[in-house]
């Protein structure tokens, strides 16, 4: 019991700093994503656009998965920050890919086309899971 308490006392500050850093990274990444995409997700959401809400939920989950993986595997806060930025860039790229495939994704979301939002969510979560998993294992040796 004493070892558990000592472990808590010695590790709590690192836990708190890491958790707060990851949470802050998630919030900042979401804000940057919303600013850089052509839709005004928050305005659409306030006006009852469910597709904007679905798309934003996909972004939040899509950023959380790799940030959580980075948090679990990072050696430092700087390492966490680097992989958080990579996750954001990949999520922005995945938005662009879906936009190219579906043609005019922002307009579809603005028109509350749920199908387009669902495809966007699927791509975002799938991409996040791959990136998150890649952070857990050593890179394969290419020959």
Structure description:
With 143 residues, the protein is mainly α. The chain has one domain. It has helices at 2-36, 41-46, 50-73, 77-102, 105-110, 114-134. It is elongated, with a radius of gyration of 18 Å.
Q: Looking at the chains present, what oligomeric state does this protein adopt?
A: single chain
Secondary-structure element pattern, one letter each:
HHHHHH
Largest sheet, in brief, is: none
Helix fraction, binned, reads over 70%
Distance between the termini: 50 Å
Strand content: under 5%
Counting DSSP H or I runs of 4 or more residues, the number of helices is 6
Whole-number total of structural domains: 1
Total number of beta strands: 0
Class from helix and strand fractions? mainly alpha
Shape: elongated
Q: What do the pLDDT scores average to? A: 91
- Gyration radius (Cα, Å) is 18 Å
Task: Describe this protein with a few key phrases.
6 helices; elongated; 143 residues
Short structural description:
The chain is mainly α and 143 residues long. Helix content is 83%, strand content 0%. The protein has one domain.
Mind sketching the topology for me?
Layout (H helix, E strand, L loop, with lengths): L1 H35 L4 H6 L3 H24 L3 H26 L2 H6 L3 H21 L9
Helix pairs in contact: 1-3, 1-4, 3-4, 3-6, 4-6
């Amino acid at each position: 019991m004493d070892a558990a308490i000592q472990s808590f006392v010695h590790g709590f500050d690192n836990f708190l700093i890491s958790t707060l850093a990851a949470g802050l990274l998630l919030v900042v990444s979401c804000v940057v994503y919303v600013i850089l995409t052509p839709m005004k997700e928050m305005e659409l959401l306030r006006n009852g656009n469910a597709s904007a809400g679905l798309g934003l939920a996909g972004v939040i989950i899509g950023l959380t998965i790799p940030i959580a993986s980075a948090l679990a595997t990072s050696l430092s806060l700087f390492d966490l920050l680097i992989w958080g930025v990579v996750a954001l860039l990949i999520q922005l790229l995945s938005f662009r890919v879906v936009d190219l495939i579906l043609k005019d994704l922002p307009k579809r979301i603005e028109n509350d086309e749920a199908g387009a939002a669902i495809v966007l969510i699927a791509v975002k979560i799938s991409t996040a899971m791959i990136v998150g998993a890649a952070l857990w294992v050593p890179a394969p040796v290419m020959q």
